[in-house]
Design goal:
single chain, mainly beta, six-stranded antiparallel β-sheet, four-stranded antiparallel β-sheet, 2 helices
């Protein structure tokens, strides 16, 4: 069964959360609008693009498998195909961004490929956490309660099918003009 996936920012919501240390109260902003506008212009800007690609496996002259990625705006996929989603961006502001958090939902009709999430940020590593409850909570290693045949309940790692969201958190700072890249893979159901 073929499915069409439109790849781009419309495929999945990219939620960019940048906590700020100070916030201007609404009333104060009304009386000091010139100050509010000046402060708003100083806030950092991170521009992100979502890129989707389909895994293509071929063989080289020696018969070894070669993996490449095909990316287009509209891609025809079948059950079992592997897709890679990449968030590619840059801090376009003149100031560093502190505690940058990126959230990405697992697209419907796909299953997350465990251990495929990663991030590339100059000189720091992102903390990657996952949600199995629709993005309400995130942990590094989601677990589920399983009732065994004998009635005993055990805690086990959550299956890949349970994953609903991925979060990348950069606990340090993303320097001005610095690039950022985060990615993960899914399999079409």
């Amino acid at each position: 069964m073929k499915r069409q996936f439109a790849l781009g920012l419309g495929v999945a919501a990219v939620i960019l959360t940048i906590p700020f240390a100070s916030k201007l109260p609404v009333v104060a902003g009304l009386f000091h609008s010139d100050v509010a506008i000046a402060k708003a212009m100083q806030h950092p800007k991170v521009a992100l693009n979502l890129v989707g690609e389909k895994q293509i496996i071929s063989k080289d002259a020696q018969g070894k498998e070669v993996i490449s990625w095909q990316g287009t705006n509209q891609l025809s996929v079948q059950s079992g195909d592997v897709l890679r989603y990449r968030l590619v961006g840059k801090n376009e502001g003149d100031r560093a961004v502190k505690n940058l958090t990126l959230n990405q939902p697992i697209p419907k009709g796909t299953v997350f490929i465990l251990k495929s999430a990663q991030a590339v940020v100059a000189s720091q590593s992102a903390q990657i956490t996952y949600s199995i409850d629709g993005g309400r909570s995130f942990v590094a290693a989601p677990t589920v309660q399983v009732t065994l045949a004998n009635g005993k309940v055990e805690t086990r790692p959550a299956p890949a099918e349970a994953y609903t969201h991925i979060r990348w958190n950069l606990p340090g700072t993303l320097a001005a003009k610095a690039p950022i890249s985060a990615e993960y893979q899914v399999k079409v159901r």
